[in-house]
Amino acid sequence: MDASAESQSGSNNAEEQSHCATPPKEHLSYQAMLPVISDELDVFDGVPSLPFSGGPSTSTYRDLQASSSHFLHTMPPSVLYHGQFQRLEPIFERYNNEFCVIPLTLDLPLNPFRYRTAAVQRSGYLLHAVLALSCHHIDNSSSSGNGDQLSETVLDHGRIALQLFRRALNSDSVAPMSSSLLDTIVILFSLDEAYSLLGSWTAHLTGAYSILEIGGGTVAWTKNPRTVVQVALLTWWDAVISLVNRTPCVFPYEYFESVLACCDDRSWTFFGLCGCPQSLVVSLIQLAHVAAEKQKSASMRWVVFDSSLVSEIEQSLEAWSHTPSDTAFDNEESMHQDMDCMHCSEAWRNGLLLYIYRVFRWEPGDTPPMRVINRARVIMDHACACRDDQFVARQALLPLFFAGCELTDLSAQNKIRVLCSLWNERTRYYMFGAMIPLLEEVWTAQKDHGPEYVWWGQIVDKKGSTESRHSLQMRICFG
Description:
- By secondary structure, the chain is mainly α.
- It is built from 22 helices and four strands.
- It has helices at 3-16, 30-39, 58-72, 83-87, 89-97, 117-122, 124-139, 152-169, 178-193, 201-214, 218-221, 225-245, 253-261, 270-274, 278-297, 308-319, 332-361, 370-385, 397-404, 410-427, 431-449, 456-467; strands spanning 27-29, 80-82, 198-199, 475-476.
- The longest helix is centred in the C-terminal third of the chain and has 30 residues, at 332-361.
- It is globular, with a radius of gyration of 23 Å.
C-alpha cells in the first residue's frame, strides 16, 4: 500500500471511530421509513453511547419525522432506502441545494458549507452538524417556526455533534480527520450565527486554527483548494470579530497572505463568500490587526500608537472605485448583477472609512462632522439600491450598523429596521434581527448623552463583558 492510500485508510479508520457502523442493508419503502426514524435509536450514529443525561429524547425523532415528511412524500413509492444515510437523504439533499447557499452572496463551485457525501457518511459529528443546521431552517421555514428559539431537534443534534466532535479531538488521529473537523466547525459556526450576534466565536476559531496547525500548517492546507476557501472564510470571520471588538485576531496575518496567494476566481471569490471584494477585504483585515494594536497600546503607559498605516489605508479607501466585470454589459441580468456588486462594495468601502473615523480619529466630546453623517447616509442608500429579490445587500450588515450608529433621523433609522427585519425573515439567520436592539441601545444612549459622547464601541464592549461567563469570552459577530 502506498503512502497516500495508507493515509486515506488511516483517515477513514479514525473517522469511523466517531461513527457507529451502518446496519446491514435494509430495504425500506418511503412509507415505512418515517416510523423507523423514531423507533431505531441507532439510525443516528453515536447516540446510544453518548454520556449526556438521558440521551436524546424520542421527541427529537418525532420532530425529524415531521420535518422530513414533506420531502419524503414527494418521492415515488418505488424508491427504496439502503442504510441510515439514505433514510435522511431528502434533508441532506435540501441542505446541499439550498441551505448551504444562504450564508453566501452567491453559490460557488467551492462552497465551504456544502458537505461531501463520503465525509458525512464517515463522520458522525459532521452528520449531526448538518442535521442541526438543516432542522433549524426547516423548523423556521414555516409560519409556525419558533423564530430565535432553538427547537429540541436542533439542540439535540447540535449537542450530539459537539460530543462526537470533542471525542474526535481527544483521539490520537486528529490530523487524518482535519478535513471533516474543519467542515464541522464551519457549519457549527454558521449555526451559532443563526441564533445570535453574541457568541463564543473565539473558541470555534481557536479550534480551527489548532486543527490546521496539527495538520501541517500553511504548507499543508494550501495544497487543498477546499481547505483554502474554508481558511478564507475563517480568517474573514476572525477579522470581522476582531474589527468590531478591537481584539487580537486568532489567525496570524500569514494565513491570510497564504489565502491571497492561492485565490482562484474560477472556484471562489471573496465577494461570493462575504459580499466584500478582495481589495477591500485586505484593508479590513489590516484595520482589524491595527485596531487591536491601538487598543493594546492605550493600556501601556510608555507606548505611542503609530497611525501612519491607518492613514495609508484611509487614502487607499478614498481612492478605491468599483471596476465593472468583463461580462457586466453582456445582457440586462449581468448589468444588474454588476450594479448590485458595486452597491454592496461601496457600502463596505464607506463603512470602513466610518470605522476609521470612530476608532482612530474621534475623541470623546468631538461632534461628528457632517461628512461623516453624509457617509452614513450613503451607506444606507447603497444597501437600499440592491435588488430585493437577490438581497445581496444583507452582506453589508456591518457597514449598515456603523452607518445606523451615526444617523439620528427617525426615517433613516426605521428604514434600517425594515431592512434588518426583512433579511432576518428571509435568511432565517437571526443575527440580522439581533442588530435592531443593539442599534436601539446606541440610539437611546446618544439621545440621552449626545452623539459626541457615545459611540458604538462602548455598547459593544458592554454587551461582551456582560454576557461573558467565566473564561468563555462572548463577542459580537456581524459576519
